[in-house]
Amino acid sequence: MINKITSYPRSILYLSTCFIMTLHCASAFAKPVLHQKKNKHFDHIIDHRDNSDEEVSDLNNPQGNPDSDPTQQLLLGGVNKYLDQYGIQLGLSWLSETAGIINGGKRKGADYAHQVAFSVDMDWEKIIGWKGFSTHMMILNLAGRNASTDYIGDTQIQAQEIQGGGYGRFFHMNYVYGLQKLWDDRVEIRFGRDSVGNNFALSPFACQFMLIATCGQPRSIQSQQGFTPWPGTNWGAKILYRPTKNTYVQVGAYESSPWGKGKGGPAGFNWGVGAATGAFVPVEFGYDSNFGKKHLNGYLRIGAGLDTSRFDTWSAKATGSGKKDNRAQYWIMMGQMIHRNDAVKDHGLYVIANWGHDSPTTANFKDLYNIGILDRGFWHARPYDQFGLMMTYYTVPRGLSRAQQYQINNGMVSGGNGIYSGLLNGAPGIQSNSMLFEANYGISVYRGIMVMPVFEFFHNVAATRNTYKDAAVLGFRTNVVF
């Protein structure tokens, strides 16, 4: 049975909802002359848009100040403009996430984590005339501590998504893959050292939130070895076919190996397959929407994956029976703009919803649900600011809960008063379900720079009911695209 939300988190949700409405009302009445002027220009752009592929429309390339766009490059724009004629593009970014626990959890405190990413993309059609072929490489520096482990006490969900991979590495080779496009880009073949999460169940909005519940896929499908998320990589390939401009179907095959033994090792250069236990085979259907005269864009992803590896079931891990099972995963993800705010292609109010399911006999999640909103361009005076709100609810398998109860009943763990050490899944107590909440506001500081204050709330920390108090977290995220 789902726990009732206590009065404290309910108050938080109410206050956050009021905050959202206040922001929208403030933006609606701020500078009415500016609103009228921009809306008139926007309607003109929409009404006179040429939808042909050959024309570059004002909707996709609005007039504006590029120094206000945080997605643009801060320093490398000129360099890449020059290098583009030679088929080379460089990327450099710094992402930091700080999370401080202000109430509940294990104790108060704060942790900092960061990611520095350097990428090289090469277009071999420009370099040697190999039509449709490109290569891509990324190197990471990952450092910092995990606030969920240190202060919240949650073994399931990281407050800082860049700590989700468990890596702290000065140098880590992330991905190296080749991409071949055929038949006017209707077919794509991608192969090399890659992540499943770079190709499947991928949302353009997932990592606009700091909780790993959302970034980069629903946590239930990317928490174990088969569906490899960032920053782990392994050998794999996929083929994608577009029957129409707005639809695609893709299938892949990837090495499945345990965390700590596969995934490239600490530096990412261990490319052997000795740790592989099987293959992960995902398939996905995708649809990219573009509705009406206002061009309300969005996406739909429906997919499934099967890991051919054999895993100990939860009952086997508790009793030693030796029983094993395969693992299958399913997901449905959508994001749809329901109101356009201005002429920038992705500026509008989006509704986001996700569902991810994992095999209950072997997985540490059963079902996970996200629902939220992302609003970009709602304040005309600050067109590149954005606001995000996301709620998550997830359950763990009953087999896991029963196995944990078996461990306690048979004296296989230490601890007491509802907090234990040695339980399966690294849990502090018997697990059932949890609810999470995040609200954030992205502030466009300058070209290539966005800062984001974040509020998070953990109800039933680590999916347990009698361990730690519900945790309130204040965070701060900085993203610089050099």
UniProtKB/TrEMBL annotation:
It holds the Pfam family OprB. Keywords: Signal. GO terms for biological process: carbohydrate transport. The keyword Signal applies. InterPro entries: Carb-sel_porin_OprB (IPR007049), OprB_Porin (IPR052932), OprB_sf (IPR038673). Residues 1-30 form the signal peptide. GO terms for cellular component: membrane. This is Porin. It comes from Commensalibacter papalotli.
